[in-house]
Model the fold of this input.
Amino acid sequence: MADNFVFRRGTGSKEKDKKLLEISEEFITLQNKRENALIVSFVAPVADITNVHNYFDDLHELEPVFLEIADAGAVEYTFRGISPIKDVEDGVQEMSVTLQLKREFL
Done:
């Protein structure tokens, strides 16, 4: 059984629990980049990619986003951007988003 990734907006106290995206790990790959950047790539059926794109397209740059993987606890990131959707094969598309790990300075 695949675990799920849950993305939750970090803004709008009353709306934040309504503004979440849950998607199976089978459609996701992660790539760490320098400067604490995380590239989250999605390869999934068109309906799922449309849902993912609509969710992230509604975010503003630098908006807080919490990512929880397999119920392991949420980690706060900052939304940095979204890629265009590309066709992979019939009925399957891909896209990616860039998140940056939020660092607390003491």
